[in-house]
Fold:
Amino acid sequence: MTDPAANEPAVPAPADPAAEALVDEELELGDDEVIVLPDESGDADRERALRAGLAEYELDDEDLALLDGDVVVGDDGGAGHALPVLAVVGRPNVGKSTLVNRILGRREAVVEDKPGVTRDRVSYPAEWSGRRFTLVDTGGWEVDVAGIEKRVAEQAEVAIELADAVVFVVDATVGSTDTDEQVVRLLRRSGKPVVLCANKVDGPAGEADAYALWSLGLGEPFPVSALHGRGTGDLLDAVLDVLPEVSAHATPIPEGPRRVALVGRPNVGKSSLLNKVAGTERVVVDDTAGTTRDPVDELVLLRGIPWTFVDTAGIRRRVHQTKGADFYASLRTQAAIEKAEVGVVLLDASQPLTEQDTRVISQVVDAGRALVIAYNKWDLMEEERRYYLEREIEKDLVQVQWAPRVNVSARTGWHTDRLVPALEKALESWDTRIPTGRLNAFLGELVAAHPHPLRGGKQPRILFATQASTRPPRFVVFATGFIEAGYRRYIERRLRETFGFEGTPISISVRVREKRRR
Structure:
């Protein structure tokens, strides 16, 4: 029978505080002792002996597969290529993100029936008729705007500059506007090949409106309904005719860049940090909370090593309390965490730790990703305040003391160079595997020094342990009885003290097995 607590988080909340406190109290007596492992030469013999002893117990097929199989490792990805870049541009609310989702065949870009939902230029891998390319969604371009709308327009202009071809989207039901005419002049100055998309043509009756767009002087308008998919095939065929085989602007992606998700509650400085490490104004930054909505990928070279940084939307208090674009943005953020290898959780040093901050950390841990905690705006703290803040942080983050912490300033770039060592340390731990013999030698010494407390006159005995997977490290312990959560935390604490595991959650599950009946 499988232990019901097998899949609990690496840092669980006590289910029975009184009972588990008693277990922890019993284990505190020898916490300062150092476990001295025997020579590695004896590890293999110990493993064989313990493995042979399991033959006396009832094991199912899953147990045998686990014991005989190799450790499971996540996918490293592969080498990328400089794919041609196609930018989708137009004024606000003409259906650019809806068209992007239609081309991708899935709902990736955040869509809502109001202008200004997309703000950054967001890249997606796409394919049509066997040809792969990079599709770039942009915010709505407007003339003579200020504030956040101006920065959104600037990002759209950068997208045109870095593209190999452009799809210009116009609302056929509205027709050509003064803003559309301004975009046409911008496109002509760029010298890029342009395919004109007349969107919101839901049937033959609307095609007359589409053909009226010949007046823009960009060639044949393709009548399309991005919402229903009508005409998108013809549009993409025309795109492939003008899209080069090899990009003149894209940068080849080095093999296997590690993916880093920048996460945190709204307005803690995630976009500012991405812009600082990238060395360019890659994403829109504004004092308005919730500026970022779509996850934004950026390839960054730090100390000669390529990293893929992903800026995400701020995680709010409760997903079900959000609506519209913010709701879908929160879902995209969760997906970005799951696609990443390490999460950098940004916290605001000028404010106390909030429930939202704790929930963000839990999301990264529950997703099984490596974790680095970055306190932003540290340069604004006075020297005396920093001393007391350090004490507060130790208390607030007691459940994740294993996570590397860096103090940075996203605005000035102060100490951002310390991110790379912290990321490397967390990822190294995330990939760490302990040989089975050495793991069992460690547990043997641990149990001999501090056996599991008696419960009901019985004492469960650990029979064998193995590391089932990495990324994150997951350990499976075979035992004769239930191992209490307090003792599992004790095992985890000693694993970290002995083998490191700094920056990665650890999962320890227990499988209770009985002896075979003779």
Observations:
- The chain has three domains: 17-73+433-512, 85-242, 258-428.
- The domain at 258-428 is CATH 3.40.50.300 (Rossmann fold).
- DSSP finds 15 helices and 15 strands in the chain.
